[in-house]
Amino acid sequence: MRAVVIGGGIVGLTSGLALRRAGIDVVICERAPEIRAAGAGLGLWANALAVFDELGVGDAVRAIGKPGEMYFHDAAGRLLDTPEFGPEDHEFLLVHRAKLNDLLADAVGRHTIRLATGFAAYEEHPDRVTVRLTDGSVENADVLVGADGAYSAVRGQLVPGTPAEEHPGHHAWRAVLPDPGITLTEDRLILGTHGCRGGYVRTQDGGVYWLVNQFRSPPLTGTRKQQALERAAFLEEGEHGRVLSALIAATPEERILHNQIMLVPPLPHWVSARVALAGDAAHAMSPHITAGATLGIEDAALLGRLLTPAGDVPAALAAYEADRIPRYARVAELSAAVEHAPTPREFARHYAAFSHWMLTSRTAAPGEEKPTADPQPRRGSPAR
């Protein structure tokens, strides 16, 4: 069996690795001239790490990451308690996107990746899919996987009329600062006023990743740094220090990334007989739940489990869609509960409820016991 994967980001590379591990011949097409990653830090939850363990790269991923905990504080520095959830519902691994992409490219084999080669169109036949690429070449395969992000060209053909949409007024600013210039003794994630949230997390190599997000933002003015500083003021209150503002002020303007958050609307289908969408191409979502990459990695793993060298491709893709669409309908419900939480404390509680659901409802890897939900209170929250 042969597969063409469109997109050389985290989900595309993980899809390629999962399919190769299943014994399928894979070619990954990336329109950029090099493997790279837009963005900065990335949080990986336990379900993503379980996938990487299954694919034989878990230890390598952990080696480039730093364990963190998703506990929130308010703008005055008070811990927002979620005593009904256990520590496993808050733990994640922070990695740099570019480092993870490089690791995955090496793992899947760079000889399988065709750079500067984008997707143009496909034609489905009873026994194959013909994929036309932007360099004029043609690939015949048994299956095509569109892992080409929120602006997916594969989705544009598979599900016409579903372009990525702005999440109105939702913006994000972030950067990795290799040398913060100040000693940081803790990580801090903050829920403030005016729809703002953000914070800073120390990285594995001694730097720091900071971020600021805002729902329902007024029209933007000023430079990216000025915009981030304006919103950081809503996250630092009273005598509780201004570490976040200091980190933003110390960041060169060119290192600061700004994004208008884009969403993919719910799709009526993710697959045809020989074409499937994965990751942001199928479900780009708001980063306020910091799980888009983790959930996309789950998509890749499921494709690798369902597609086999001698298997029935249409049946495998139908099973994939039947699993994924209901799961992401529930993701959307839980994400909306977080976004529309009326107070920072409710935001923190809904966030922990989402991560608990995600970790206890995931599809277990072969030979792994499936996690089970524990609705009972686990413990009091630690002092942080």
Secondary structure elements and pairings:
Layout: E1 2-6, H1 10-21, E2 25-29, E3 41-44, H2 46-54, H3 58-63, E4 66-69, E5 72-74, E6 91-96, H4 97-108, E7 113-114, E8 119-125, E9 128-133, E10 138-141, E11 143-146, H5 153-158, E12 165-177, E13 188-191, E14 196-202, E15 208-214, H6 224-232, H7 243-249, E16 257-263, E17 275-277, H8 280-283, H9 292-306, H10 313-339, H11 344-360
Parallel strand pairs: 1-2, 1-11, 2-7, 5-13, 11-17
Antiparallel strand pairs: 3-6, 4-6, 8-9, 9-10, 12-15, 12-16, 13-14, 14-15
Helix pairs in contact: 1-4, 1-9, 6-7, 9-10, 10-11
Give an overview of the whole structure.
- Helix 1 (10-21) packs parallel to helix 9 and helix 6 (224-232) runs antiparallel to helix 7.
- The protein is α/β, with parallel strands linked by helices.
- It starts with a strand and ends in a 24-residue tail after the last helix.
- The protein folds into two domains: 2-66 and 94-164 and 264-360, 3-Layer(bba) Sandwich (FAD/NAD(P)-binding domain), CATH 3.50.50.60; 167-260, D-Amino Acid Oxidase, Chain A, domain 2 (2-Layer Sandwich), CATH 3.30.9.30.
- It is 32% helix and 24% strand.
- The strands form four sheets. It has a six-stranded mixed beta sheet with strand order 5-13-14-15-12-16. A five-stranded parallel beta sheet has the order 7-2-1-11-17. Strands 3-6-4 form a three-stranded antiparallel beta sheet.
- It has helices at 10-21, 46-54, 58-63, 97-108, 153-158, 224-232, 243-249, 280-283, 292-306, 313-339, 344-360, and strands at residues 2-6, 25-29, 41-44, 66-69, 72-74, 91-96, 113-114, 119-125, 128-133, 138-141, 143-146, 165-177, 188-191, 196-202, 208-214, 257-263, 275-277.
- It has eleven helices and 17 strands.
- A hairpin with a 5-residue loop joins strand 14 and strand 15.
